[in-house]
Amino acid sequence: MKILITSHYFFPENFFINDIAKKLNNLGNDVSIATGKPNYPAGLIYKDYKFLGLSKDSYEDDIVIYRIPVIPRGKSKFQLFLNYISFVLFGIFLFPYILRNQKFDIILHFGAGPITSVLPFLIIKFLKKIKLIIWVQDLYPDTLKSFPIVNNNFFINSVGALVKFIYFFSDKILIQSKSFENSVKKYTNKKNIVYYSNSSIDIKLLQKKKYDFQSKLIII
User: Fold this and answer.
1) Domains detected in the chain
2) What is the pLDDT of residue 207?
């Protein structure tokens, strides 16, 4: 199976989606990554990467990584906002171009960071007529309620409408905690929700149930 893993973050940034990519690849899948230029957590583009231009490198030798420019997250809330927005805007225009000759069976979006990060891959889903699975790591719009600067009903409801739109066009929603279910099902059909915990990346567990994650990806 040809899997496109999409994420706001990826190696050399230290997130467990790196291990998931490696495990899926080791199970015989053809895994590719679509992400931005690495800049987490220091807020600066990593050495050996340039801000401008598209780039292509690899992880574990045979996992291809396609990268677009992003404004580095810096140290301020405003620059973090620009980081989030730049990923979406650059992604909407550049990912369809950089992936134009590539074929995939499925998209797995790692939902760490803002819910908006999936928007470029909705376009890829429709252009390539493939399935999109979102692995929810943060609850939107609920998580925004802890930030007083954005905690007003109009903004929260607007983000809620965006979440409902994104979930409507997604084929499956993986949740990393069972406690997420009540919040997520407010925005999507309960049948679309599948529990898949982050702890399932444990090597011994993956070896014990080595096709468990893959099977959940293809049960749409």
Assistant:
1) 2-218 (3.40.50.2000)
2) 45
